[in-house]
Specification:
Strand content: 15-25%
CATH class of the largest domain: Alpha Beta
Shape: globular
CATH superfamily of the largest domain: NAD(P)-binding Rossmann-like Domain
Oligomer: single chain
Number of helices: 12
Strand order of the largest sheet: 1-11-8-7-5-6
Bound molecules: guanine
CATH topology of the largest domain: Rossmann fold
CATH architecture of the largest domain: 3-Layer(aba) Sandwich
Low-confidence stretches: none
Helix content: 40-55%
Radius of gyration: 20 Å
């Protein structure tokens, strides 16, 4: 049976470190870090994320300021808000919640954020620094996954790592961070030929494709470490029966609550083959916010204000 890599416990450790960092600023007579969160439209999942971010900020002493705009907001108005936040000396970090409603250009918005305030690490300047292996603000989810692996003593040097997914938010930056730590990295995706065989080569498998239960137990090399970044909501009982054959508790939750969260990996099957696995929920999910607040503190300290 594999070890469960507890993301919630590690997120708590990271948040405690941020809390101490904020306290340290206060002791030096500096103000609390300020994080501006911009939410456009009324996507229910985004509203939950933003609420969770604000609650986490309150816990560690970061000042969070929410800016809610209507779904019909023109690009010029969003751009003007970003300009205003870039110029505001009390704002250290700016996060524009994605996805943006149709009609708004997310690249234009993300490129407009000052690189020094880009707590998501999505600006081309920060992406370039990551590519060069230089310090900068780095994407929250992969940064926090790397911190989790380090905490659990996973030695990445020379390891065969497969990153499943090539998004700019997770897949690409995760691959670069693993490479920086001397892993041998393959980025696999939906067009990769014989995906199961590629995954089976992995000593470390990072799944970030948003396809529920795509990775079966037979895709996993015995003894591998598995990091499951996917968070998928399942409501279909027939799909649940198929995905959760090795997870009676999940099936039960689906039956009683009408929905259940699962990752891109079949957790019950992975537990039989791997040496360590992150669960969903309670794995990578809580780490993302911890990574974000770590970045907000870093941005504030970099500003020297
Ligand atoms: N929506 C889903 N994940 C993220 C994220 O990491 N950052 C932002 N800005 N929006 C998201």
């Amino acid at each position: 049976m594999a070890t469960i890599l507890d993301g919630k416990a590690h997120a708590d450790r990271m948040l405690e470190s941020v809390r101490l960092g904020v306290e340290d600023r206060r002791a030096r007579g500096l103000r609390a870090p300020g994080l501006a969160v911009v939410l456009v439209g009324d996507d229910p999942a985004s509203q939950v994320y933003v609420r969770n971010k604000s609650a986490a900020c309150a816990k560690v002493g970061i000042t969070s300021i929410e800016h809610r705009l209507a779904a019909e907001t023109p690009q010029a108005e969003l751009d003007a808000l970003i300009d205003q936040l870039n110029a505001d000396p009390d704002v250290d970090g700016i996060l524009v919640q994605l996805p943006l409603p149709k009609g708004l250009d997310s690249k234009e918005a993300l490129h407009r954020i000052s690189p020094a305030k880009d707590v998501d690490g999505f600006h081309p300047m920060n992406q370039g620094l990551l590519l060069e292996g230089l310090p900068g603000l780095r994407p929250c989810t992969p940064t926090a996954c790397m911190s989790l692996l380090a905490h659990h003593g996973v030695n990445l040097k020379g390891l065969r790592a497969v990153v499943l997914g090539r998004s700019e938010i997770v897949g690409k930056p995760m691959a670069l961070m693993l490479l920086e730590q001397h892993a041998t990295v393959t980025i696999a995706h939906s067009r990769t030929k014989d995906l199961p065989a590629v995954c089976r080569e992995a000593d470390l498998l990072v799944a970030a494709v948003g396809r529920p239960g795509l990775v079966e137990g037979s895709w996993i090399k015995p003894g591998a470490v598995v990091v499951d970044v996917g968070i998928n909501r399942i409501e279909d009982p027939a799909l649940g029966e198929r995905l959760f054959a090795a997870e009676p508790k999940k099936l039960e939750t689906l039956k009683t609550k009408g929905a259940v969260l699962c990752g891109d990996v079949r957790f019950g099957e992975a537990m039989q083959v791997a040496s360590a696995v992150t669960p969903v929920p309670g794995g990578v999910g809580p780490l993302t916010i911890a990574g974000l607040l770590t970045n907000a503190l870093m941005a504030a300290n970099n500003h020297g204000a």
